[in-house]
Every structure is written in structure tokens, then in C-alpha cells.
Amino acid sequence: MAHSLESLVIRHTHRLPSPEGSAGEGATAARQFDAALTTVGFKLSAELLARLSGLSEAAVVHTARRTLRTVSEMVGDQVRHNSYFIDFPANVPDTEDFWMRCVTKALGDDTSRESVLAQLRHGVLDLLSLPTYGRYQHTYEEMLAAHDELIASAGDRVTALHLGRGLDDELTDLYLALAGSTTPLGEDDLRDLKTLAEQCALGPQPTSIPVRENRAVVNEARLGVGADLLLDTVTDVLRLACALSDGDVTLREPTRFRALSRPARRGLLAGLDAVVAANPAKLADVHAHREPFKRLGERLHPHEYPRWPHAADVFAVARGEKEARSFDSRVEQLLDEFDATGAVRLLKSAPGKLFRALDLLLRIAADQEERDAVVAAAVEVAPEVSGRVVLSVREHFHNRERETDTPRIFVNRRGRAWVTPDTRPPVPAADRDRLITALDAEIRRRLPAPGRLLLDPDVLDVALPLSGRAAAAGFGVLPRGSVSAVDGELLRFFVYWKESRERTDYDLSALLLHSDYSTDSWLSYTALTAVGGEHSGDVTEAPDGASEFINLSLDRVRGTFIVPQVNIYAGEGFEEVEESFFGFMLREGERKGRPFEPRTVRMKSDLRGTGRVALPLVFQRGDDGRWRAKWLHLYLKGISVANRVEENQASVSKVVRALVEREQLTIGYLVDLMSDDTTVMDLWDGEQVPDEPVTYIGLERPEGLHEDSRIITLENLRDLIPG
Asked: Residue 381: CB partners within 8 Å, gap ≥ 6?
């Protein structure tokens, strides 16, 4: 258990909890540990190296084994990445020549000859019926022997591991950061919060838990130790019930409520009773989740507890036996009647809902006087709206400025994307500009004075992490819409999957688009070679795990966009397989080495969406000739079987265009707002750091920062979002 908790800290913070063990002469073992780390693209900070050097050799070796296992998993090196073509990317054959080679071998095989001949007589051939197609023809060890060792390069990724505090202190700090996050967490982070809450339920607690899903996870742990619950709506209780049944606390998916213990039933009913007794109007919230409340009532048996009559009212409303007109229905009626003034008057009591309706209110307002009232109301309630919502609305109106034919893109909480034409009438420019100015002022008011600011320029184009669901779990992953430089001559994608129960075939492909988003070419199992690239070969089953690769020489690519994608051709979905992830590597020149080299991995993200086509990111060549990545984290519905790049190129092109042409608020936007005449700003050049405390914002933490510095890196970017 201690190892899994230590691993959790390393993954989230890139800090190793202060190693424990007897004192000794561990310097040699520590240097060996550091050398081993470099093979997977990591290193020990000077402070951590010194700490390990003062421990016994046995303690260092024990720490090294655990840590190497964790960082290998972070970059995807915990599995064996074989390639169908043993010496990929060299000697990749022409597609049709390769297929003919497989047919020839099948005709020479007594067990397959008759079947293949029968198929050929009918003019249709199933590639999967060929013995040598889609299945590795060599072992992993044979593949390794076919490749020269990768020579170290200055361009390889090096990620520092820093010395942390004791494990208990690191766990508490991480718990407070995740539980108190001002933005929703991704699924993996929410699971990690559950683990941390069980450890920290009786320790220090955040001053507030603004995200409801986080509150449900924390409440589950608090209920288990008999602590007071944090409840102020009936929906908080419903989320807690979902948590107790290992269900979905976001309420996106239906939860099958399990039989609950009597203490848990009493806790839930008492919580419902207290919320409604304090404010009977909150019964109206039941309407949004009537069916789950009805199913929950069947498990809680409220009639057995007459001392909590207000809890029984909740289920009476859910069954339609008691009336409680919802706030949303009253707002909807006013909007349907185009009564902007009445809707604003009502919505001022729910500032978050008012902000989400601003675009519609400005469009249905009858005249300038009504639009003035809408803007004035927004300015008045802005201090009561969460920073995440203020920033989301600010980004929305920024993109409403541009009069283009760019389609609207919608992305749900699971990353499923779809696009539609934008048929909305424009928002009057003057009103939009007034709102943008007011929202900027409100965000500026909430941001802390940074004092001396040390800034990594590479972080400026990172999109604000307004939701943890806008990024996949993994290593080196940036929020959806972020832009990052691609520094390297060779770009290599990889996908790995391992099936759970049935034969599963994932196909890694890359769609190459012109500047107008029309198709130039593609790389896939049907096009093993194209201008500038090679495909490692089709693997069609993965009982022991399988990998596919695409290699691209960027200076030979003709198009403007490179869109890697993972298509589910057959079998289990991304959330059904035992494991699946995507990533990319960067290399310089014609470097040798294995198809998968962990120290060249720049990004590795889990594939866990509900669609059948995954679009992790897109690479775009700028007017200056340089390549940049824009992060997508999207899934398309696709079809149930046989998804192929040839068939989905039109839908992929539409989605890519919609997101590429949408402008996100970035870290650079916040930096501009937080900087004033008193701010001293320095750009981090990778050299010496200041001796005094600074606010550092960058992708990775430099060594040697003053201990009182505030440090914001990729691991805790969410801390920049004001409450």
C-alpha cells in the first residue's frame, strides 16, 4: 500500500517522498539509480541525489526499484512494444507487395491453401485468413536484436524527480490540492482523490470544496469515519449515494444502487432532512434527477424513519406526489416568452445560471435598454460566480467576435465530439466588448499579485485547464486546445492495447491534410508508406498486448496538418480493454534505436473515451515552417466495426477544423492580467534561478528555486484558476 501511495505522489507531483532508511554510503548506488533513470528520460535532482547518497546502499536500491517501476509506467515502458515489421522503420514494404507476400506464404501452407484458393476464386480475400497477416512473426527479443542501441542525444527528454517531504505530508498536500480544486477533476484524478480521502479523512481539510463531485468523494470517506458531512443541496446526497455504490458521482451515467448498511441509510436520510429543513425550496432540485431519486428511495426506505419527514418529501417530489416547481422551469418559461427582463430578474438569484444564459439573453433582448440590463446584471453578480465559469464565458464571447463560417464544436464530458453549422445570430459587438472588459476586470481582481514572476515561455500557449476532463490521464499531457512546439526531425506515434475477453484490433493511422483541411494522403494498414512516413504493420489481436507505430520525417511531409488517430476495427472499446494508450516520440535525424524508446517519449495518454475513433492531438505546420501540436483529446462515435481512416476522413476534418480555429484562453492571458507596474517578470532561460522567492510558472520545475517560491507546473496548473 505504501508503494502505491508513493507512486501516486510521484505521478501527480514529480516529487519522490523523502526516502527512508538507515544512514550509510549510498553514493555509488544513487549514481547508478540516476543512470538507470536516464534510460526512461528521468533524472534525480541534485537535492534528491544528495539525500539518497546519505542512505545505505540497500535503502537506495529498494527506493530505486519502486521508483523505476513508477516512472516506466508513466511513459508507457512497463510493457513490451513489439512491431510487426521487425526492422521498422527500415524496409517497410509497399502495401500490395506485402499482401501478395502473405498470400504466397498462405498458398504454400497446407492448412490454409484450400481456404485461400476458394476465396480467390470468388474475388474476395479476408486478410485475417492468411497465417502470416496481423500476427507477430518474431519474438520481442528477436526484434530488439535487430536494432542498434539508441545513442544518447541532447534532444532527448529529461524530466527531473525532486525531493519531497515525508510521505504523510505529501499525501496531505496532494489531498488538499485535489479536494479543493476549483475545476472538475478527470476520472483518474477523481479515483486518486478517493484513495487519498480514505487516508486523510481525519486530517486537515480544505477550506472549501467547490466542485460537487469532489465533495461526494470526500463525503464518502467522512461517512466511513463518522465525521460531519458537507451537504447543502439534495443533489449532494444523491452524489454521495452514488459514491457508496461505486457509481458515477458526476451523475452522467445511471448508478445501480446497492443495498446500503443501516448506518449509511441513516446518514443519507439525515442529510436530506437537514438540507430541506434549512431551505424547503431546494426540493425543486429533485426534478433534475427524478429517476435516480426514485431508485434511491427504494433502497433507503424513508418510511421507516418518521423522525426525518423532510427526507420523505424528497422522494414524494420524485414520485410526483408532492409539487415543487423547479427554478429552471420558471426560467425556461420566461425565455420561451422572450422576456429577457423577467429572466434576468429571476436569474440574478442564481449567478452561475445567469452567466451561462448571457449569450441567449443578449440575442432575445428586444432593444438596447434590455441588453444594457443584461450586461449590468452580469457585472453585478460577477463576484458571486466561480472563476471557472467566468473564464469559460469570457472564452465563449472571445470566439463570438469572429464572423466566420467555422462550425460549432460540442464536446461532452467523455470527450465525444460533434460539429454543427453555427446558425446563431451575432451578439451586438458593443455589448460583447463591454462584457469582455468587465469579465477581464473581474478575473484580474481575483488573481494574486505574483511579486517577482519567473516564466517559462513554453507555457504561454497552454490552454487554461478549466476542467480536468479536457485532458486525458497520462504523462506530458496538456489541456484541450493547448499549443506546444514540436522540436525534432522525426515524429513517431505509438499505440498499445491489450484485450480483455475477445479479439480486439486497433488501427493506428495518420491523416495528412492540406491547409484547407482537404485530404492529402494517409498512413494506415492499407497505406504502409506515404510521403515522409512509414507504418509499422497491422496487428489484429492483442491477447498479450500489441503495439503499432507511425514514423514521419517532418521535412518530407507535404501537408499542413498531421492528424494521428486510433480506430477500433474490431472488438473491445477503449473503456473495455485491459489497457490502452497513445503517445508520440521525437527524434533527431536518422537516429537508430528500437521502435519504442522511452527517453524520446514526449507524451503518453490513456485512451478511455466512449467513441470508436480517438483523436488525441493534431500537428500543424505554421507559416514559419515550424510544426506545433494542438491538443484535442476527442473521440468520434464511429461505427460499430471496421472503422478506417479512409471512411472517416470527412468527419475528422470537420472536427479538426472546428477546434483548430477556436481560440482558447491561455496561461499567457492570465499572466497578462496578473502583471502590473509592481511585477518584475523574468523569462526562464534554463540557466540560473533567482536567489529570492518567486512565482514560477512553467512546464517543469527548475532546480534551485527558493523554498518559499510558489511553483506552478503542468502537474498543478489548475491552481492558477481563481475561485
From this structure: 348, 351, 354, 355
What is the C-alpha separation between 42 and 241, in angstroms, rounded?
A: 42
- Scanning 301-364, the segments in alpha helix (DSSP H) are 309-318, 327-336, 340-347, 351-356, 358-364
Q: Would you tell me how many other CB atoms lie within 10 Å of the CB of residue 626? A: 12
C-alpha cell at 401: 467576435
Q: How far apart are CA 205 and CA 172, in angstroms?
A: 9
| C-alpha to C-alpha distance for 710 and 92, rounded to whole angstroms | 50
Q: Which amino acid is at 578?
A: E
Whose cell is 522511452? That residue is: 598
Note whether 473 and 188 are within 8 A (CB): yes
Question: Nearest-5° angle of CA 390, CA 393, CA 399?
Answer: 140
> Are 611 and 411 within 8 A, CB to CB?
no
- Sorted by sequence, the CB contacts under 8 Å of residue 700 that are 6+ apart come out as 14, 159, 160, 456, 713, 714
Q: Which residues of the chain have pLDDT under 50?
A: none
Q: What is the pLDDT of residues 550-597, one digit of tens each?
A: 999 999 998 999 999 999 999 999 999 999 999 999 998 777 899 999
pLDDT at res. 2: 65
pLDDT digits (tens, 9 = 90+) for 656-708: 999 999 999 999 999 999 988 777 888 888 888 899 999 999 999 999 999 99
445 within 8 A of 700, measured Cβ to Cβ: no
Domain ranges of the chain: 327-446, 452-462+667-720
Q: Measure the CA–CA gap between 70 and 334, rounded to whole angstroms.
A: 55
Dihedral pair phi/psi, residue 190, rounded to 5° = -65, -40
CB of 414 closer than 8 Å to CB of 609: yes
> Does the N-terminal peptide bond of residue 89 adopt cis geometry, omega within 30 degrees of 0?
yes
| Each residue's pLDDT tens digit, 371-411 | 999 999 999 999 999 999 999 999 999 998 765 677 888 88
Side-chain half-sphere CA neighbours of 238 within 13 A: 27
> For residue range 317-351, what is the model confidence (pLDDT) as tens digits?
999 999 888 888 889 999 999 999 999 999 999 99
The secondary structure of the chain in percent helix, strand, coil, rounded to multiples of 5, reads 45, 15, 40
What are the backbone dihedrals phi and psi of residue 396, each rounded to the nearest 5 degrees, phi first?
Answer: -60, -50
* Dihedral over alpha carbons 138, 141, 143, 144 (to 10 degrees): 180
Q: 525: Cβ–Cβ under 8 A, 6 or more apart, which residues?
A: 95, 507, 509, 535, 537, 538
Place of cell 427526507: 311
Beta-carbon-side half-sphere exposure of residue 424 (alpha carbons within 13 Å) = 20
